[in-house]
Amino acid sequence: MLPHRMTFPAAVFSRQKGHIHLGGRATLAALAVFLFATGTSAAAPSVTAILDNSETFVGQPVQLGIKVSGATGATPPGMIAVDGLDIRYSGQSQLVEGRNFQFSYSSVYNYTVMPLKAGTFTIPPQSVRVGGSSLQTPALTLNVAASTGRSARTNRRSDTVDPNKIGFAELILPKSTAYAGEIIPAVVRILINARVPIESLGQGIQIAGQGFTRNSSEPKESIEEIDGQSYHVFTLKTAISPARPGKIEIGPAEITPLVRIARPDPRRQALPKDVFDMDDPFFNSFFNDPAFQPSIRQEVTIKSQPHTIEVKPLPPNAPPNFAGAIGNFTLKAEAKPKSAQVGDPITTTATVSGRGNFDRVTAPEFEDDRGWHKYPPAANFTKDDDVGISGTKIFETVLSANEPKHNVPPLIFSYFDPVKESYVTLRSDPLQVRVEGNAAAPAATPAPALAAAPRAGASAASPPFAAKQNDILGPLSEPASTISTFAPLYRRSSFWLTQLLPLLGLGGYVAWKVRKVRLADHAAQRAASLREQIAELQRKLRRDDLPPDQYVADATRAIQLKTALAANVQPDAVDPATATNVFGADNFTRSRLERLFQQRDELRYSGSAGNGAGQLSDDNRRELLELVETLHT
Amino acid sequence: MIRRARCLAACAAVILASPVLAGESGETAFAKGSAEYARGEFGEAIEQYENAVRSHEWSGPLFYNLGNAFFRVGDFGNSILSYERALQLSPHLPEAEANLRLAREQSRALELRPGGIERYAGFASVDVYAVVAAFTFWIAASCGAINSFHQRRRKGLVVLIAVAILVFAAASYAVRLLETGSKGGALAIITAKNAEARSATADNASTVLPLPPGSEIEVVSRRGDWIYATLPNDFRGWVPASAAEFVRL
Predict the structure, then answer these.
(1) d(CA A433, CA A430)
(2) ipTM of the complex
(3) Residue B29's closest chain A neighbor by CA?
(4) CA B170 remoteness from chain centre
(5) Which residues from A are below 8 Å from B108, CB to CB?
(6) A427 near A395, Cβ under 8 Å?
(7) What gap in Å lies between CA A45 and CA A131, rounded to an integer?
(8) Do A517 and B61 touch (CB under 8 A)?
(9) Taking CB atoms and an 8 Å cutoff, what residues of chain B touch A498?
């Protein structure tokens, strides 16, 4: 197995001097809690120094890092003087590394080393004060070759990532021979240069090959530094199981991520390196960073080497109850309850733990199940790792005794051990139980409380074949009363016909509401029209410039309209009695109304009122107006 | 005239002699199959149960018994297929579940693993989701109609409409997910012995995966006598069409 090395993503945990990225203080606080919770390594402080490249050209800077581990608050050298090299402090970063959940905390002090002339230079040991002591870095050698301006520029361009060297892949298999059906843990590591922005991982990690099956977990991402270069590392743990004997080629593991690659920009060759042509490494690295360069999206294929595995067939003479389990297992068994009556259910729990192909781990069998009725077991697997190589599989089998018993027979489980290259049979101790009562008839109906027990419809008669271990449940004696169909409900016409009911209901409701609204609109329009006419007539009556016959006619009409509005009747059908009833008028008002209507008729049909006077005094007009205006419900 | 009558009589005799066309009910065939099964004549039992299947009087117990009969003759592929059909028709038939588990263990059949969301959606059946979708659709439509005829919008109704639309959308998605998923309409069972999925539509193409009888596959497409299918363990390959049968009839 691979050593478990864990490095936190630099984007989260790296800290430039005076500037905290992303998570900020909350992240650091969480980190601190996490480190204390899991335990940081308490090793003695140590100091080391490293150059990211021991060979360079004049004008081509390299990075010097002084790494202080196991201590905080170190004082790095302020100035490093070497003739021919311009060494400048460029910042501090902090690094947390984890290995098997043991974490170490380091500070890295970075320096930019700018070669000023060709030659071989030695950077002498530097003193770093840690706590009260002083530690020394090792001496470092840097070879600087002479360079023309052109070559320096060319080298600077090499800061961009070569598309062919974006990353690499590893497929790690711990063995080259295996047995058919054996589970082989495998790890795929995809390493992609951290300076290359990844847009997507495409189809994910694929493992080519035939003749094997695999279970995979989700790939995990981390950042690792290898030879001074940071990589995004995608680690996929998988379990491979060869399906047939012979030579099987596994892999290559392959991934086709979509990345952004710097586009060659010929104009940059013609531009000065920077405004002052100072060969400033910060300037260079900043503008050569893919994030700031014109770039293109490109799918790149990263492949590992394939592996060939020699798959051997399982040896002959397997135990009779061997069902294909390969690995290393242990068996525990228990039975509950400890005392029961004949025919009562007793649950035996067999726990198979270990490492191997759990999909082929079947329920342990009983050594001798005579006198017992056994039901198909239920299995539950709990895996201990990501891919289910190791774990615990629990089988619950329900038994019912046909006669008094003192124990449940031992359970037997056989597997093939690929390390010992032999079959192993595990046998549990007999499980002590006390079953009392009279012996049941051989064809007795089993305990009804069991989930898998035959129901009332099951055949009660014993079939002529003998009941065996792991036997199926018997046939059902009656077909279902209704004829079924395989078509899902939503594809059946009955389903859509049923939808007509709510559709009709909803349609009816909508139609009823629409009609109601329309009717309401009609009544409202009529009322509005009546109100308008009444208002117009009252305005005319107030103006007092109408001839008497017209005045009386308008007053009468106004009363008819008011009555029609109040009682929802036709205005022309309104007479004094109707108006009196609608408005609940007293006798005096009633007589005034009758006189008004009579006067209107006389003026209309005879041209003069009954009293012979074709005139209306002001008082009469005022009385009529008052009569019209005071009538209301 | 007499000749025509004779012809009609002969046709009637032929029709009546045919068990299916003569209207020998599926129930009768089921009873005969059960009788044969009880006598240990499993081949005859299979024939009778298949007559019942041909009469389209399908039921969970019919396919369950047929699965048992196939199990007895050692045909695990057809046994598992029949148990699967029984469970499609009667999803809560514990005998079918138990025997299916046993048959799978015996034949070492490979199973398709449902995806993450499909696994969660699988706690209810397609029919349940269809009913929920229909119910919530009408709830949303009714509340929408009621709300539109009110001059003032009722907040409670608007919330109810929103919830109903969300549940309708989720149920519709679940229907689609389950129907196109590993246990949906494209589910087929390997019934042939020594079947192998191959990388191309040729008998001599390289083997992608050996498929024991009863293994599940999800048919993607068909080309001639071959079907392209999703296989257990996330493989894909070509399987002879004669080696597999759809669960749904």
Answers:
(1) 9
(2) 0.79
(3) A479
(4) 24
(5) 324, 360
(6) no
(7) 9
(8) no
(9) 134
Q: Report the candidate in B39, B30, B90 with the shortest Cα–Cα distance to residue B60.
A: B90
Q: How many angstroms separate the CA of residue A2 from the nearest CA in chain B?
A: 25
Q: For residue A392, give the 3-state DSSP assignment.
A: strand
Which phi and psi angles does A213 have, rounded to 5°? -115, 160
**Cβ-contact B89, A486 below 8 angstroms:** yes
Contact yes or no for A479 and B61 at CB 8 A: yes
Buried b (16+ CB within 10 A) or exposed e, A96-122: bbbeeeebbbbbbbbbbbbbeeeeebe
The beta-carbon neighbor of B59 closest among A474, A480, A495 is A480
Residues A356, A415 contacting (CB under 8 angstroms): yes
Using CA atoms, how far apart are residues A534 and B193, in angstroms rounded to an integer?
A: 97
**Window from A71-85, B30-44, B51-65 with minimum mean pLDDT:** A71-85
Query: Which value, in Å, is the radius of gyration of the alpha carbons in chain A?
Result: 49
Does B5 contact chain A (CB < 8 Å)?
Answer: no
Smallest Cα distance from A303 to chain B, Å: 20
Q: Which helix (H) or strand (E) holds A36?
A: helix A24-38
pLDDT tens across A132-153, in order?
Answer: 778 888 888 888 887 544 444 4
Q: What is the pLDDT of residues A181-213, one digit of tens each?
A: 888 888 888 888 887 888 888 878 888 887 787
pTM: 0.42
Per DSSP, helices labelled H in A235-388 are 266-270, 281-288
Encoding tokens for residue A57? Answer: 């050209």
**pLDDT bracket for residue A57 (50, 70, 90):** confident
pLDDT of residue A56: 79
CB contact under 8 A, A479 and B102: no
Cα–Cα dist B114/B218, whole Å: 11
* DSSP code for A400: E
Helix H, strand E, coil C: the string for B162-179 is HHHHHHHHHHHHHHHHHH
What value does the CA radius of gyration of chain B take, rounded to a whole number of Å? 24
Residue in chain B closest to A379 (alpha carbons) equals B101
Which of B61, B108, B185 is nearest residue A478 as measured by Cβ atoms?
Answer: B61
What is the three-class DSSP state of A105? strand
Instruction: Select from B62, B69, B131 the Cβ nearest to the Cβ of A479.
Output: B62
Report the alpha-carbon distance of residue A550 to residue A624 in Å, rounded: 13
B207 touches chain A (CB under 8 A): yes
Residue A83 region by backbone torsions, left for phi larger than 0, else alpha for psi between -120 and 50, else beta: beta
